[in-house]
Design brief:
This protein is α+β, with helices and mostly antiparallel strands. The chain has helices spanning 6-27, 31-37, 53-59, and strands at residues 38-46, 49-52, 63-79, 82-95, 98-99, 103-113, 116-126. It is globular, with a radius of gyration of 14 Å.
Length: 129
């Protein structure tokens, strides 16, 4: 995915940093961060269904992180207020007693509202290894 100019590089850096922070805050069970990180109309798509912001925030604390790493980031600035990020996550995580796939391909969409970048969409697909 092509970077257009230095402005996009700055946005790219901020979005990747936000995504990394979100994983860390989820690991630390920081409900307040997640509440403020998500847009009010945010939703996540998983293999077993779609969840909205109240469900996402409620789920904080349902996962135990043994380890994780994020890499292979690809960034696309869709317009001045919308950005798409994809990456690969290697993880050793258990949520609600279920072991999560060891490797996933994740996609997040961020929107800029009120001068702040917010996560509006997230999905993940188990990666074929």
């Amino acid at each position: 995915m092509k970077k257009v100019n230095d402005t996009n590089n700055s946005v790219e850096t901020r979005i990747i940093a936000l995504e990394k922070q979100a994983w860390e805050e989820w690991r630390n069970k920081n409900r307040a961060f997640v509440q403020n990180y998500l847009s009010d109309d945010a939703f996540f798509v998983y293999g077993d269904g779609v969840v909205d912001k109240p469900q996402i925030v409620k789920a904080i604390g349902s996962c135990e992180f043994n380890s994780y790493s994020l890499d292979n980031f690809k960034f696309l600035n869709l317009d001045k207020n919308t950005a798409l990020l994809t990456y690969t996550a290697k993880q050793d995580i258990v949520c609600d007693g279920k072991t999560q796939p060891a490797m996933i391909r994740s996609t997040s969409v961020y929107v800029k509202r009120g001068g702040k970048w917010l996560a509006a969409f997230y999905t993940e697909t188990p990666a074929v290894q």
